[in-house]
Amino acid sequence: MPLLPFSSKYTNIDWCVFSGVQPNTSSLLEPSVIQGGLCTGIQKLVQRWLIRLMTIKGSMPFAQERGCGFISEISKVQTESAVRIAYLFAQMEIEPQLLAEETEDMPDDERFLSSELLGVSRLRGACSLSVKLTSRAGESREVLLPIYETGR
């Protein structure tokens, strides 16, 4: 018996892992602990992108190709320009992954069009990224992603 009142083949709904994506604002993404929270649309696209950015490539036993090298590199870099370069390399890894998993029956607001690094800030053991994600529907969200470094 399915846990949800809809077919498990309906792939346009996903569990909400991150919350805080609001229209027309910069949003601080936070882990979501909303019981039964679902996400669709641009929220789902942001979540798909973020999970790949934060996943170290090769760290998932059954999806070795998923993720990128950004988190591994971020602790090694010292300057904002080096963070920007690390992000560009990550972007080159993430974009093909997102596009490869998309299907023609997915709504355009869940399909990836572009990502743009708007800003980087570094301060003692922390790095903050401001990124604009745009869907094929033309809908955009700016997200603020704080990353706290460990082991320095």
List key phrases describing it.
two-stranded antiparallel ribbon; 152 residues; alpha+beta; 4-stranded mixed sheet; globular
Q: If you had to describe this structure to a student in words, what would you say it looks like?
A:
- Mean pLDDT is 79; it is low at 1-10 and 31-35.
- The protein has 3 helices and 8 strands.
- Helix 1 crosses helix 3.
- Strand 7 and strand 8 (140-148) form a beta hairpin.
- With 152 residues, the chain is an alpha+beta fold.
What is the gist of this entry?
With 152 residues, the protein is of the alpha+beta class. The protein is built from 3 helices and 8 strands.
Spatial shape? globular
Helix content: 25-40%
- Please state roughly what percent of the residues sit in beta strands, choosing from under 5%, 5-15%, 15-25%, 25-35%, 35-45% or over 45%: 25-35%
Structural class per helix/strand content? Answer: alpha+beta
In total, the number of strands is 8
Low-confidence stretches: 1-10, 31-35
Report how far the terminal alpha carbons are from each other: 49 Å
What gyration radius follows from the Cα positions, in whole Å? 16 Å
Give the SSE string: EEEEEHHHEEE
Largest sheet: 4 strands, mixed
- The number of helical elements comes to 3
Write the layout of secondary structure elements.
Elements lengths: L13 E2 L2 E2 L6 E3 L1 E2 L6 E2 L1 H14 L15 H5 L5 H22 L10 E12 L2 E10 L4 E9 L4
Parallel strand pairs: 3-8
Antiparallel strand pairs: 1-5, 2-4, 6-7, 7-8
Helix pairs in contact: 1-3
